[in-house]
Design a protein that fits this description.
It is a single chain. This protein is α+β, with helices and mostly antiparallel strands and about 1350 residues long. The chain has 46 helices and 23 strands. The strands form six sheets. A five-stranded mixed β-sheet has the order 2-1-5-3-4, with helices on one face. A hairpin with a 6-residue loop joins strand 1 and strand 2. The N terminus and C terminus are likely disordered.
């Protein structure tokens, strides 16, 4: 049975173009649906697993292989029937659509009929897709499916078709071609020919991206377990790692990053396949049914002209210079182009067949398109081959695939808003809605990115062409584009161009937030921000009717001049009121230029416009969140003392600095805890007073109303409630909860004393209501030009105080909190991106980076933070360089781009003291200097200033930029100094700057340290890509399942957790398609659970998907990918695929060296893994190199006395024991023993184990000594005791591997389990009562961070 609350996933992703399905027709208007469904343009590339494929590579969403003729495995347990899902607190009914799949027979011309498994939910369309991907039917595109002679409607669901049942015979009937169908056919054939060619992934096209996993696993892992079963005897495997990844190696080669795959030299099938110059057919030929002409050169060097006619493809008699459309003889008329080419070229026939065989053998995850484009910063040199479709795409007036849509370009705004309006009452509706939203967003992002590049490359005509270039605006493909410059002094008071540059990202954050709150009836614009070639472009969907009207007329809410004229609107207030609680925005009054009071529920520049479609849009959300006072000095305002200590307030380049939403949430959460504590204290106080009316003072000596200090000191003192009073405290807190609820419901039942307690507590924490806890911010405070009425003076004063407290909270709680997490290694940044993520999760903006790095230098645990310090410095340098690079590029003409970029990189990274820039040669510059062309270049008039930059100047600028922007003093005047002072790696700097700016460089070894020759030439710069920021729509239901699954796992209910997470995976697939970061986290956790529950092969298969997905969606060397590789290696080892495990670990180590270098806490874990596996295959000397390196790193980052170090000592001792070097073994084990004894005490089991092992080693050492003495004494006739030299057993190695990777299998008795559960529940009640801040944070943290470490029973590693 196939439980389908969803359509089978892979079909779906296969159609990046399906926006709306048939059953959404009613909701979304038939027009959009028709448009969406008619887009087979991209199909061919996104394959679906064909029924031919081996099961192991079938990835259908929930593990039950759908289109599968041979079912070998049971479907996964589907958490559907469990009633336990209602636990999310929402009483949503989980609607179960229990539909069993059934099998139909497909009869296609020329091949035997074959069975196909389908599901009633599918559309006929999806069977088409499967057939277009199957090896034996992939060359057909223009056909209909017939049941009993009736053509089936493409957009009908199978369950609605009469007479379709188990065993029905569907006939594939060839249909006549139209021009559109012929084009689709040619495009599909081209895609099949290019299906193994990675060039689209290197070029960042069509959502293709790279994956290298299969090169390290030599084929598929799934059947590997069966194939490579090694008995007890070890077959010889080569374990020697490449030189450059051995511990201590200094070289960091770049080439291994993208190893060259054998399959990439694809089997060439044709020399040329292209559109003929004789297109389009003249009228009289059109009337004979000619649709278009193709020109082909076969591998045998035969030149042929082919006519595509309504009946199919045939050879005609034209040549390159002579048009003769008559059929050749023989004409080989065939319905499919492949059949025609098979007949005229034996090479084509042979190669095409083997190419398709290879294509269907690849793992589907290597082929499916990703939802958003991922770009690669390096690429090998590829020959540029002729490609008819690409050539046609580039120059057709219509944009790529759009010509397949009736009604031409898509109305993005209508699609984006319609999907929001879909119903969302129950789970299936919500899934449909979320899927539609996600799909449209990813399509819109792709279109906006193409448009933005076209705008900057000068390929789009401006709508105001007479204005100067900076001011121009563009419309392309129904998207509105504007450049990030301060047009018409709009941002004059805020910092001019600098403010105009940051406004779009702030606005995007606003759009993200309002989208996430998802209030019915309130609409935002589709927004994408693209940085490309030094320019920032904002792409927005267009509000219907806005272009016909003046802006002044259309704005019915808010202000277009930053607060002089302000208007309000009742409907907008009502809609925004709904968002105010989750967004913590306070409703407030401001004065307009006529001194009238106007009520708002957002910042003044948030505008409300009612479109011609009657929808209420909000735009310009750049100040959704309150201002950050640390970077906004205001006359006469005194900042809190802890801010001043850190040098705040500091003048920033613009006045649009806002606090992040994560910070606002953390601050409110912090205040809520404070509120509960205060109220509970006072209530206990009252209770105590009733008992003995003596002591009136609060226990900690402060009066309840004085606000708690905001500077982390409070937490340091033991709060009076700890220890014995915890139970009582819980009762107290419950009482507070009860009280606030009764007061809020305005019940007269509350005694005045208790009411006063709550009022005091509210006042103390700055709540806007004095009856309940409610903190909100007024986003207009300190906004230049906004005035408030006198009536709200006190309120404004409180708000100002609140803003100062929030700024202080960031500095004194969040930054120290981040550093503490880094010291504890709960946060492990490995590169710039992961550091940024860690900061953002805690609400710390990047402009605080200098302060964070400073804070590290002043921390006592400075050496344990070395890795974070290095990443911080690298990030400071590369971000400052990026700022400079941005303005540098604006002065470069297109023709000088590669020369300019290579010159910049030479100045930035090369030790060569005076690189010379190559200006584009003169013969290409026209003699007559055209006056009007000057205008076109967006930058400064002089286009060669960039050539005069020198390394000294660039590094001086980087240092001053770091000082000005991040307030950090870099102590280096050149790249070599930077590398030396901060022990950085040039290759890492190169990676970071390339990722931040979108540069793509040639994959080769660069010699940065050559003093006589620059490292880069212009040939090394292959491309420059856009850097895109967009909204990420979420799958909310799936995420709830995921979270409850995690919670269950942490409580030790593995099976239930596993079911919930499988269910989440199902829903994620349903919304996102097959590829997404969150699915990756889901698969990783699932694999870990499979592993812990002993299902190694399932763990392997899930983790393999996680690795592939991480490579494809995050990038091949993203830190997350590195960790996925490590997990996969462990599961490979457990499946006794030792050489694969080593290959994967070596790959991970190589990537880690490239991304960061050797000196990182995670490297210790990696080296322990490698060392253990090598120990297992008896490569003792190699093993020691890795284990001793791990010992070194662990001692540095965890302190020489930590348990991790003790474990490291033990692992090293075991290898020495295997080598029979007992003295060294004893020495290490003693160290370990001492640590255990000091940390855990004599009687702890670890200490006992260690002491046992010491005894054993001593015996062995003594025995060995005896034997030696015996030999010395009696020479050759000595009777030698056989010594036990044992190779470690695989089981013991695996056990150690589990320990170091934090996976413990705890053998528990039933009674222990009961106790454990009770304990867990008790803890949870405590936490519930305290409502700890974790909960809010967990809403913010993306799942992949938390998913990695399930805690409590499974991962308390020593």
């Amino acid at each position: 049975p196939c439980p389908s609350a969803r359509r089978p996933g892979t079909q779906e992703e296969a159609r990046p173009a399906m926006v709306i399905k048939a059953d959404e027709m009613t909701a979304a208007g038939a027009k959009a649906a028709a448009a969406a469904a008619q887009e087979p343009g991209k199909d061919a590339r996104q394959p679906q697993p064909g029924p031919e494929e081996p099961l192991s590579s079938m990835v259908l969403t929930n593990g039950d292989s759908l289109h599968e003729s041979h079912k070998e495995e049971d479907p996964k347990p589907n958490g559907h029937e469990e009633p336990s899902h209602a636990e999310e607190g929402s009483d949503q009914e989980v609607i179960v659509i229990q539909d069993t799949g059934f099998t139909v027979k497909i009869h296609a011309p020329g091949i035997e009929p074959f069975p196909l498994q389908v599901s009633p939910q599918e559309m006929v369309q999806e069977i088409h897709q499967v057939l277009m991907d199957r090896e034996d039917t992939c060359h057909r595109t223009c056909f209909s499916l017939q049941l009993d002679g009736n053509v089936m409607d493409n957009f009908a669901e199978l369950k609605t078709i009469e007479g379709l049942q188990e065993g029905s015979l569907l006939k594939v009937v060839e249909e006549p071609y139209t021009v559109r169908e012929a084009r689709i056919h040619v495009r599909h054939i081209r895609d099949l020919l290019k299906s193994l060619d990675p060039s689209d992934a290197f070029n960042g096209v069509d959502c293709n991206s790279l994956s290298f996993l299969s090169m390290f696993t030599e084929g598929d892992l799934g059947d590997g377990g069966k194939r490579k079963k090694r008995g007890t005897e070890m077959e010889q495997i080569d374990c020697t790692p490449p030189e450059h990844i051995l511990p201590g190696s200094k070289e960091r080669p770049l080439c291994p990053l993208q190893p060259q795959n054998r399959d990439w030299k694809p089997l060439q099938c044709l020399k040329v396949l292209t559109m003929s110059g004789w297109n389009p057919p003249p009228g009289n030929r059109k009337m004979h049914g000619d649709l278009m002409y193709l020109y082909v050169i076969t591998m045998e060097d035969r030149h042929v002209s082919i006519t595509a006619a309504t009946r199919g493809f045939y050879l005609n008699q034209s040549t390159a210079y002579h048009f003769n459309p008559k059929p050749a003889s023989p004409s080989f008329l065939s319905h499919s182009l492949v059949e025609l080419l098979n007949q005229i070229s034996p090479t084509f026939k042979k190669n095409f067949a083997s190419l398709q065989k290879k294509r269907v053998q690849r793992h589907p995850f290597e082929r499916i398109a990703t939802p958003f484009q991922v770009y690669s910063w390096t690429a090998p040199l590829a020959e540029h081959a002729m490609d008819c479709v690409r050539a046609e795409d580039a120059y057709t007036s219509r944009l790529g695939y759009e010509e397949h849509i009736p009604g031409q370009t898509r109305d993005w705004n209508e699609e984006l808003q319609t999907t929001r309006e879909l119903p969302r009452k129950n789970l299936p509706e919500r899934l449909l809605r979320e899927r539609a939203i996600f799909k449209v967003h990813s399509d819109f992002t792709a279109a906006a990115t193409r448009g933005a590049m076209a705008v900057i490359d000068g390929n789009v005509m401006a709508i105001n062409p007479s204005e100067e270039t900076k001011m121009q605006m563009f419309i392309w493909n129904n998207i509105f584009f504007s450049l990030g410059f301060d047009v018409r002094d709009h941002y004059k008071d805020f910092g001019g161009d600098v403010a105009a540059y940051v406004a779009p990202t702030n606005d995007l954050n606003g759009v993200r937030t309002y989208n996430a709150v998802d209030v019915e009836g309130l609409y935002t614009l589709g927004t994408v921000v693209v940085d490309y070639r030094g320019y920032r472009v904002t792409a927005q969907s267009i509000i219907p009717g806005i272009l016909e009207r003046e802006q002044e007329e259309s704005v019915v809410y808010g202000s277009i001049d930053f607060g002089k004229t302000v208007v309000s609107h009742a409907k907008y207030l009502e809609l925004l009121e709904k968002t105010s609680r989750p967004l913590k925005i306070q409703r407030h009054k401001v004065l307009n230029d006529k001194d009238e009071e106007v009520e708002l529920c957002s910042s003044v520049e948030c505008k409300g416009i009612i479109g011609n479609d009657g929808r209420h849009y909000v735009l310009d959300l750049l100040r959704t969140f309150p201002p950050d006072l640390n970077f906004l000095p205001v006359e006469g305002e005194e900042m809190p003392e802890e801010c001043q200590r850190m040098g705040f307030p500091k003048q920033h380049r613009h006045k649009l600095c806002c606090l992040r939403q994560e910070l606002v949430d953390a601050f409110v959460e912090h205040r809520y805890l404070l509120f509960m504590k205060l109220a509970a204290l006072q209530l206990m106080q009252q209770k105590a007073n009733k008992q003995e009316s003596g002591s009136t003072l609060l226990e900690n000596g402060s009066s309840p109303t004085s606000p708690f200090p905001e500077n982390g000191m409070e937490d340091g003192k033991k709060s009076p409630l700890e220890d014995g009073q915890v139970e009582e405290k819980v009762a107290g807190l419950d009482r507070v909860k009860e009280l606030t609820e009764t007061i809020a419901s305005d019940d007269g039942a509350v005694d005045p004393k208790s009411r006063e307690v709550i009022q005091n507590a509210c006042k103390a924490v700055g709540s806007i209501s004095n009856l309940s806890f409610d903190i909100r911010f007024n986003p207009d405070i300190f906004s230049p030009g906004v005035r408030f009425p006198d009536s709200s003076k006190d309120q404004i004063q409180d708000q100002k105080q609140l803003l100062k407290d929030a700024a202080a909270f960031l500095v004194s709680y969040q930054i120290p909190g981040l550093i503490k997490d880094c010291v504890d290694h709960t946060v492990l940044p490995m590169d710039g991106a992961t550091l940024v993520e860690a900061m953002h999760q805690r609400g710390i903006n990047m402009r605080y980076l200098g302060k964070v790095v400073d804070f590290i230098t002043k921390t006592p645990a400075r050496t344990q933070l070395d890795h974070v310090y290095k990443i911080g410095i690298t990030e400071l340098i590369t971000r400052s360089a990026k700022h400079i690079f941005k303005t540098y590029l604006q002065g470069v003409e297109l023709s000088g781009l590669s020369a300019a970029i290579s010159h910049f990189l030479n100045c930035f990274l090369s030790s060569f003291p005076n690189p010379v820039a190559h200006l584009p040669t003169d013969e290409l510059i026209s003699k007559k200097k055209n006056k009007r062309r000057k205008n076109r270049n967006l930058g400064n008039a002089d286009n060669t200033t960039w050539a005069s930059m020198s390394p000294q100047e660039l590094w001086k600028n980087i240092c001053s930029e770091a000082k000005a922007y991040f307030d950090f003093c870099l102590e280096c005047e050149s790249v070599d100094q930077a590398v030396e002072v901060y022990s950085l790696q040039k290759i890492t700097l190169l990676r970071e700057i390339s990722l931040k700016t979108g540069i793509q460089i040639l994959l080769k070894e660069y010699n940065f340290d050559h003093r006589h020759k620059p490292a880069f030439t212009e040939e090394d710069i292959l491309n420059i890509f856009p850097v895109v920021k967009h909204v990420n729509p979420k799958a909310s239901d799936a995420f709830h399942f995921f979270q409850s699954g995690q919670a269950k796992v942490q409580q030790g209910f593995l099976k239930e957790g596993c079911e919930l997470i499988s269910e989440a995976l199902n829903l994620f697939n349903n919304v996102y398609g097959a590829m997404h970061v969150e699915i990756c986290a889901c698969l990783r956790l699932l694999a870990r659970l499979n592993y812990i529950m002993g299902d190694y092969s399932e763990a392997l298969s899930n983790q393999q998907k996680a690795v592939l997905m991480s490579e494809r969606v995050l990038g091949i060397e993203h830190p997350n990918t590195i960790q996925e590789y490590m997990h996969l290696a462990l599961y490979c080892f457990a499946n006794s695929q030792l050489s694969t495990a080593l290959n994967l670990l070596y790959r991970a180590r190589y990537l880690m060296l490239l991304v960061f270098g050797e000196d990182h806490p995670e490297m210790a874990l990696l080296d322990n893994n490698i060392g253990l596996v090598l120990h297992g295959v008896m490569e003792y000397d190699l093993s020691l190199r890795f284990l001793e390196n791990a010992l070194l790193i662990n001692s540095k980052y965890h302190g020489a006395r930590s348990l991790k170090v003790a474990l490291s000592h033990h692992l090293v001792a075991r290898v020495y024991e295997s080598k029979a070097e007992f003295r060294s073994a004893l020495q290490h084990e003693k160290e370990g023993y001492t640590i255990y004894k000091n940390q855990l005490g004599e009687h702890h089991e670890k200490t006992k184990e260690s002491s046992e092992y010491l005894k054993y080693l001593t015996q062995q050492a003594v025995a060995l000594q005896r034997t030696m003495n015996e030999i010395y004494k009696n020479g050759s006739n000595a009777n030698i005791m056989p010594l036990k030299f044992t190779a470690p057993s695989m089981a013991s190695v695996l056990e150690q591997l589990n320990i170091i990777n934090g996976i413990l299998f705890i053998p528990l008795s039933q009674k222990d389990l009961e106790n454990l559960k009770a304990e867990v529940q008790r803890r949870q009640q405590l936490q519930e009562a305290l409502k700890t801040s974790d909960q809010l944070e967990s809403e913010e943290t993306p799942p992949e961070r938390r998913a990695s470490e399930p805690s409590l029973p499974l991962a308390e590693s020593p």
